[in-house]
Amino acid sequence: MGRSDSTRLATSTALNIALDGALAALGVVLAFFLANPASLWPKPAGLPLGGAVAIWLIGIPFGLARLHWRFISFKDLAIIAAAAVVTALLLVLLMVGADLPLPSPTFPVILALVLLVLLTAPKLAYRLMRQKSEVADTSQTAILIGSGDEAELFLAAHAKSAAPYRVTGLMALSGKHVGRRIHGLDIIGAADNAQAALAKLKQKPDLLIVAAPGLTGQVLADLLQAAEQHNIRVLRAPSLTRLAPAEQKVELQPIVIEDLLNRQQVQLDRAGLERLIAGKRVMVTGAGGSIGGELARQLAGFAPTELLLLDSSEFAVWQIDIEISELAPTLSRRIIVADVRDAGRIQAIMRDYRPELVFHAAALKHVLIVEANRLEGLQTNALGTQIVADAAAASGAQLMVLISTDKAVNPSSVMGGSKRLAEMYCQALDVEARHKHGSMRCVTVRFGNVLGSTGSVVPLFRRQLSQGGPLTVTHPEVERYFMTVREAVGLILETSKVGSGEEAIPDGGIFVLDMGEPVKIIDLARQMIRLAGLHPDKDVEIRFTGLRPGEKLFEEMFHGSERLTPTNHGGLLMARPRMVDMQAVRAAFQELRQATADADEVTAMEILSRLVPEFSPSAGLAVSRAAE
Asked: What is the pTM for the complete model shown?
């Protein structure tokens, strides 16, 4: 605390003491008059000074001198009331002890009430005047959206902050609260019928503030659409546990695109996951990436005996290690910098640490970059998976989970084709393990795009928006499946539990996350522009660039020839892609390893096409040319 702050605090405290003393003295005079109007002044004459001294003494344990009048609360009022009662009791006891007559039998009650009124009224008046002054200075108006508790907490924090807007009404989450009042504000309507609520307002607000963390999906999307029609911005309040106290500003935040993903949350079997993970040594490859990092975060919550974080990027794995150290400070962790393509290094790591569970998320995932570096993609995604799987099995691991992608279905890119090769190897390995007692199970899980992941379209759009646009979309009809990274990883963990259990899983079966309905990328772009408070095609241009090598208009979760098998687990589906036996897969992978070592891209692509007949590297280009 600086010298000026100390001086200000001392001045404020002294002023509080002086005012409380003066008000207590005045209270004694008024109480005597009200108890006995015939007596204009207390007897003895020095009794008002005794009231001042009493309030000073009582005020020390009650902290009256430290009260901030501008932010007086109901709790503070209760403290003042208690201090007034104790002060009145103390004075009465002193008078009785000194054998001084009471002006009337009701004097103790009158004195307590008068002290209460005099001590609280100026403070409340000051706060109301300050609030009125602050409201007069704010030109923007806002409607708050949230339940009773959420609205109460936000309004309390808002009253303490110098916000550039004033809340003029409320919108509840359901219609049953419409017509009621909170903090003197009318509940004008329900969030699920925002269009009607806003339409009936004569004076439209400048802002809608969402204070309900659970308000997401289609209801939020409809709310945004209604707000856009009335040219109203929509912002989200910070978490109610982090609302700024005292004079700090309550920072409103933009709605993020993840909030609009209309997906029903799947309840995970946490008890089953704990049985699988707790007390085990767990490795995550690609731990510095979006999926690998979230895997590490969620795994840390199930009390593994040790968490091994492996990545080829020193900085990326250091970042996730810092996060885990904050989330689970007592969890044993190891940072391992290694390349999954380095067989000798991976074998040594597996031999030294002997992980019981391995989550293999390491991969090159960017379609265009892999397309320009085909051999690197094949080495990392296909051969790297073989290296990790073989080393894990040899070291005695119980389970390996391969993170695959929807781009492995009818692949038009080397990235997708290389991931299909990885799927095939793990399929063959798992079938082999079923017939060998104690062998490592190998579970493959396939899903689509993750919102906000590294290299995905959402960070690209955010970057383009920060630069004023344009937002670039390859084709007006292109669409993708999306889910949040947290949901995807939760279902990956659920898959690991199911795949390691006793349930009958068909040979070569691949788990596929239920991605819901695909989303058009152009709709995503328009929504992100709206979330930024701008208008698509007016404030920010959307520009079509044409499909690029390896890209498709539509992603597929299943190949046309794959047989679909339902599961008894929400969010999980089962595919049965074409199988290749382990002997044939190993031989083909050996050929591929030689071709990549010789930098023979032509031979490597021939091997890929032979192993994955549905691989069509020109598909994306063909669609692009047809659209031109």
From this structure: 0.68
